[in-house]
Amino acid sequence: MKFCSDCGDKVNLEVPQGDNVLRHVCSACGMIHYQNPNMVVGTLVEHDHKVLLCKRAIEPRYGLWTLPAGFMENDETTMQAAQRETREEACADVELVQLFTMFSLPHINQVYMLYRANLKTPEFSPGPESLEVELFDEANIPWEDMAFPVIAESLKLFFRDRDAGHFNTWTGAMIKQDNNPPVFNVELLGDND
Amino acid sequence: MKFCSDCGDKVNLEVPQGDNVLRHVCSACGMIHYQNPNMVVGTLVEHDHKVLLCKRAIEPRYGLWTLPAGFMENDETTMQAAQRETREEACADVELVQLFTMFSLPHINQVYMLYRANLKTPEFSPGPESLEVELFDEANIPWEDMAFPVIAESLKLFFRDRDAGHFNTWTGAMIKQDNNPPVFNVELLGDND
Predict the structure, then answer these.
(1) pLDDT of A115
(2) CB contact (8 A) between residue A77 and residue B106
(3) Which is it for strands A38-47 and A32-33: parallel, antiparallel or unpaired?
């Protein structure tokens, strides 16, 4: 951010009075421009003991597999966002069951929320942002071709909970370590019991 | 938003190619400025069978009661945000137990997350944004002087779950109706069982 979105003048990085964080503050009108994390919301759809994955037709991670998910928009709820993204990316109409994972990804200022969901009708196909949409059983998940670590982590928790016979709502964070290739520390708050 | 935060030129409202939502698009450099909901994160602290409330020392709702909560910042996790806000507003050091409620408030483009938490030490006092910080038992909750409907709703769910002997993680939305005074429809996704 270089310019004030309200008056067009230059912004400076400074700590406003009563604050303790550097903010973009307009040098002319004084407006403080706060920057906050974004929510990415989607679904983990189970059907016939399989899960629905989408092969990405867009960057980043073109050609790799993910769950249907995307940025939450203004004027909608997290549940509406999850259903909308599933419709857009997998042409699937779903009923939400439960918030399953909510992971903070502080290195990219995102919070990733995935809801467990069921297909209302057994129909799905690639939307414009997907190359393929397919149901996978656990044995055939393309673990080596997953687009994002947070998706792989959520799928692992899903299969673990399914084996245990009880689905939790997991809240946690994936903390990027200084490694190349990137390695994440997964922090989980614990289950709900 | 009237000006591009990247180049300072004027922005127009238009639907970018491949999109279906009106966005602020720069007339000069073409940058699309997405606007997304913000997260408000806080805690519902229980101690000695009482809950910790803060009386607001700031607008909006100066002088009314709320739970310690505030906007999530970049570079932190939702859990860190919840603990930070509790430190700032109630000078209390807490251990998080569980995500308890997550309510979408689409009329103000916020998602409100409250974690159940315990005091690490039995110490608390008003931070700069609070006039008072007090423990209330259920019978003495100042229901008529609550700052925000989402806080009252979360407290009701807390006492209901405590009576039932099991705390869920509630995901829902509060949909503002066209009433004056404002009335909300509370949508809940259901419990985790």
Answers:
(1) 98
(2) yes
(3) unpaired
Size of interface A-B (CB pairs under 8 A): 145
Nearest-by-CA chain A residue for B176:
A75
Which of chain A's residues have a Cβ under 8 Å away from the Cβ of B75?
Answer: 106, 109
Chain A residues inside the 8 Å CB shell of B35: 74
Whether residue B8 and residue A11 make contact (CB cut-off 8 A), yes or no, is no
- Most distant CA atoms of chain B, gap in Å: 60
Q: Give one DSSP letter per residue of B92-137, joined into a string.
A: --EEEEEEEEEEEETTTTEEEEEEEEEESSS-----TTEEEEEEE-
For the segment B9-22, what is each residue's pLDDT rounded down to a tens digit? 999 999 998 888 89
**A78, B128: Cβ pair inside 8 Å?**
no
Asked if B103 and B153 touch (Cβ cutoff 8 Å), the reply is yes
Longest distance between any two alpha carbons in chain A, whole Å: 60
Kind of pairing, strands B130-136 and A69-71?
unpaired
Q: Is pLDDT above 70 for A190?
A: no
What number is the average pLDDT over the span A43-72? 97
pLDDT of residue B190: 62
**For B8-55, what is each residue's pLDDT tens digit?**
999 999 999 888 889 999 989 999 988 899 999 999 999 999 999 999
The residues pairing with B52 across neighbouring beta strands, listed in sequence order, are: B135
Instruction: Using a CB–CB cutoff of 8 Å, tell me whether B188 touches chain A.
Output: no
Residue A19 forms contact with B (CB below 8 Å): no
